[in-house]
Amino acid sequence: MKHFEVNFDGLVGPTHNYAGLSYGNVASLSNARSVSSPRSAAKQGLLKMKALQEMGLIQGVFAPQERPDIYALRRLGFQGSDAEVLSQAFKQAPAIFQAVCSASSMWTANAATVSPSADTTDNRVHFTPANLTNKFHRSLEPQTTGNILRAMFNNSRYFAHHPHLPDNEHFGDEGAANHTRFCTDYGHTGVEMFVYGRYAFDGSKPAPQTYPARQTREACEAVARLHGLSESKTVYVQQNPAVIEQGVFHNDVIAVGNQNVLFYHEQAFLDTERKLAELQEKFAAPMHFIEVPTAKVSVAEAVKTYMFNTQLVTLANGDMVIIAPTECEESTIVHQYFDELLASNTPIKEVRYFDVKQSMRNGGGPACLRLRVAINDQELAAVNQACIMNDTLFERLNLWVDTHYRDELSTDDLADPQLLIESRTALDELTQILQLGSVYAFQRN
Questions:
Q1: Residue 174 is among the residues annotated as catalytic for this protein
Q2: What 3-state class would DSSP assign to 269?
Q3: Computed from CA positions of residues 258, 262, 267, 273, in that sequence, does the dihedral angle turn out positive or negative?
Q4: Are 198 and 161 within 8 A, CB to CB?
């Protein structure tokens, strides 16, 4: 039996915009109200997907959400035709209006937490959509995310789907952005590391005071229970509140792991030495802990360039490659560090740089754009094959983007009723391309 790690990248939606919605996300706030290019953003993402597929990796596509979310506006009391609802919300509640137009579902690292069959008690791959309760614009995503996941992994023999955790910040869950799995081989039992920012039911524990800690310990434990994970193969690590205060809103902004490697910043965690010792003990095979000292790369530089919000992938020859944004290449400090890293004796043998600036300006790098799913060949065969990247799908999706996406979009353009029509037309066609069925509310109503 063969085993793989498949990356499912979020396809950027037709309403990709810079509304600056994410308090605590430095990049998102600093680019608020800039003019975006949905077409460029989608094509940048597709190019990265195709490049990884051409590197010999299996690459999937994850559909975006329907935006603007008319149904959320109607729940909040705006009435009339779709055009009237948009106009009322735009004029009367501009902040709410911008939130329901968010294109942040492109960051599928926040879509769900995934545990492979090698780790679970029933030997199925488990999915729990993230509830994303900390941000209103993201809290609108879980139901549709669950619909899309079930359409992609639609075989109960191999896949188990759970509802998202209760919609309350006591169980704030941000998905795979705070979850890393370590293993000797993708098909072998691994150790799953959950990173949290605070305890929800114990105010005496350390927590940031300015920016929010979006993930709670209680949410991590709940997902581990749902997935049937063994305590002997699960580690809970608290994020350093001091780095959250510096714009590290998810663990994947300050650390990334793959197989037997953890690449992390010196300030990433609390009680680092003890927790890494626990991880090593439970892993039961040699680990590579690659710590980046503050003296070489500051937290501010790491956040600015997203040097940790990178993908760490394993090629067929066993070499690991970092998939980094071009911002890392343009930074003298980070580029120099990567050169030193490649000259040292670690499994990481190469860094490849990709232009994902449209995503970066909104606060997400390569790691944010993908959901990792470790599966075997039988499970892979049970995945919706229309969502797996190949030459034909790449060409078809590029044509789809050219047909339906605008070249530029300002936040004021979001009130255009025609944009809603364009978006729904595009998504309806996309569900046919990806063979998802009726996953969107407008298709069901």
A1: yes
A2: strand
A3: positive
A4: no
Among candidate residues 101, 220, 368, 387, the one labeled active-site is 368
Known catalytic membership, residue 66:
no
Q: Which of 5, 66, 174, 218 is catalytic?
A: 174
- Domains of the chain, by residue range, sit at 3-67+102-444
The helix or strand, by DSSP H or E, that contains position 47, with its residue range, turns out to be helix 38-54
pLDDT in tens, 50-94: 999 999 999 999 999 999 999 999 999 999 999 999 999 999 999
Omega of the bond leading into 286 within 30 degrees of 0 (cis): no
Task: Provide the pairing of β-strand 370-376 with 191-196.
Answer: unpaired
Tokens 């959950």, located at residue? 194
d(CA 183, CA 255) in angstroms, rounded, equals 17
**Phi, psi values for residue 33, rounded to 5°:** 70, 10
Q: Is 231 a catalytic residue?
A: no
What torsion do the CA atoms of 211, 214, 215, 219 make, to the nearest 10 degrees?
Answer: 140
Q: How distant, in Å, are the alpha carbons of 68, 72, 159, 213, 404 from that of 422?
A: 11, 19, 34, 36, 7
Strands 370-376 and 3-10: antiparallel
- As given in the structure block, the two tokens for residue 121 are 């008690």
Structure-block tokens of residue 293: 């000292």
* pTM recorded for the entire structure: 0.96
Residue 25's closest CA among 330, 249, 197? Answer: 249
User: 74, 71, 161: which is closest to 440 by C-alpha?
Assistant: 71
Element (H, E) at 39: helix 38-54
Average model confidence (pLDDT) for the chain? Answer: 95
* Closest to 161 (Cα-Cα) out of 113, 205, 209: 113
Q: Which of 173, 154, 155 is nearest to 164 (CA)?
A: 173
Tell me the fold of 3-67+102-444: L-arginine/glycine Amidinotransferase; Chain A (3.75.10)
Q: What is the pLDDT of residue 23?
A: 53
DSSP letter at 164 equals: P
Integer Cα distance of 336 and 334 in angstroms: 5
C-alpha 152/C-alpha 117 separation (Å) is 17
Note the pLDDT tens digit of each residue in 210-261.
Answer: 999 999 999 999 999 999 999 999 999 999 999 999 999 999 999 999 999 9
Per-residue pLDDT at 25: 46
Pick from 19-33, 180-194, 312-326: least confident? 19-33
What confidence tens digit (pLDDT) does each residue in 20-37 have? 565 554 544 454 557 889
Q: Which of 16, 250, 265, 404 is catalytic?
A: 250
